[in-house]
Amino acid sequence: MCEILGLDPLYLANEGKLVAVVPAEAAQAVLAAMQRIPEGYHACIIGEVLEGDGHVILQTAFGGERIVDMLPGEQLPRIC
Question: I need a surface site. Which of 11, 37, 48, 51 has the fewest CB within 10 A?
Answer without folding.
Answer: 51
